[in-house]
Design brief:
The chain has 463 residues and is an alpha/beta fold. It contains 14 helices and 19 strands. Bound molecules: guanosine-5'-triphosphate (GTP) and zinc ion (ZN). Catalyzes the conversion of GTP to 2,5-diamino-6-ribosylamino-4(3H)-pyrimidinone 5'-phosphate (DARP), formate and pyrophosphate.
Length: 463
Amino acid sequence: MKVTCMVHTKLPTRHGEFKLLGYRDVAGVEHMVLTRGEIAAIDGPAPLVRLHSECLTGDALGSYRCDCGEQLDAALHAIDEAGRGILIYVRGHEGRGIGLMNKLRAYALQDTGEDTVDANTRLGLPVDARDYHQSAQILRDLGIEQVRLLSSNPAKQAALEAQGIAVEARIRLNVADRLENSGYLATKRARMSHDAPPERNTWDTLADGCLPDGALSPGDEALVERYAPLLEAGPQLVIAQLGQSMDGFIASRTGDACFVTGELDREHLHRLRALVDAVIVGAGTVQADDCQLTVRAVSGANPVRVVIDPHARIPHTTTVLTDETTPTLWLVGAEANTPEALSPHVAVHRFKHEEDFEPAAILGFLAKKGLRRVLVEGGGLTVSRFLHAGVLDRLYLTTAPLLVGDGVPGIRFEGTDALSGALSAPVRRFVFGEDICTEFNFTATLPLAAQGPNQQDQSAGKH
Ligand SMILES: Nc1nc2c(ncn2[C@@H]2O[C@H](COP(=O)(O)OP(=O)(O)OP(=O)(O)O)[C@@H](O)[C@H]2O)c(=O)[nH]1
Ligand SMILES: [Zn+2]
């Protein structure tokens, strides 16, 4: 039994261009093979190979009953990233080999409470009727004897090995379970020996934008309680943070800001960075601190750095302009001088009018770029401007038990004559070692009529 390669062409996709080969097996079933790079190279690791079982509902219609569509996408992405690999789109595998209509019948049975295994059995059909000999023949035809298999299914590995293809490694595609397919995936893990996803810790789950479920340790519960509101806020969120002395200074008279608040507040700041798309700083902060604005104290993705700098006065050797870890948007005025040669991670945006630097205008500009979750990180002037403009959803103001006497001011804005006009909002307080972080929630209104049982530490800021 042998497969025949019928045609060679190419396929441009959102994951770049692949070579496309059309194969026909002896039974007349037509398979598609996408390849990238030097697949049969002798040196280095075996190529990444995905044997993707046809699934019309998942692959073409985007069904969430299974994870096939997302796995297909993740497999092409992985091959694109590696610059080398093969995806065999195996026809005739629909419904684990029982065919489309039988799969839909199995779905109907699952709608009445059967699981994916029992549904097939109830229909008098095998639980998994797939056969991998065509895939092995195609690989061999491509000169491949060894693969790194993109799959969670040990049976696929065993089937390939039985056909004489060596599996150097089985690599799980990183596709998250969904509400709609979690039962189906749980059954595959419990009854079909599929690999379970690696356990993610509570912080990593939050940093991925998800709320953890199940029982949590008290420390993890505190994390969820502290940061869950930022996830529940949805795609649009503007927060700010500032660390200052008890008498309201972020640095001494000479600009010495090392360190006003302690290690735990720094960790909190890095967590906030990991939970947003972009962090905004003023030019003064970049000049004074040469900040990196990346996530280092905890795990998480780095936000895009946004520097407000109308006169382009930050030094050209500063970290945000030289460190390529994450992009920097440098917001400058029309007349500002910027160097000709800049690192590719830096994008300069020239704002024509002074009003373009208003907080709401900057946020509008960032939202158009898809940066909708924003942290305003400093310094005192910038945070105060965003606060006074009324664009903040939350402010985290951490006070350290220090009295500086005189220095670089923290929050300052045009106040009111009467205390009754002072800015206030419902607050929560977090103790970070010797420091106290106060979270002002400007999205909630005073007075707090209904406090949830988990928010006993929340109290109105106005007395
Ligand atoms: N019979 C049946 N087939 C299903 C069901 N859900 C998905 N499928 C089919 O299952 C095939 C994919 O198999 P999966 O078990 O999802 O995954 P796998 O290919 O074994 O393993 P991975 O390599 O990790 O994707 C596709 O052909 C789908 O059409 C179902 O509830 N019943
Ligand atoms: Zn599917």
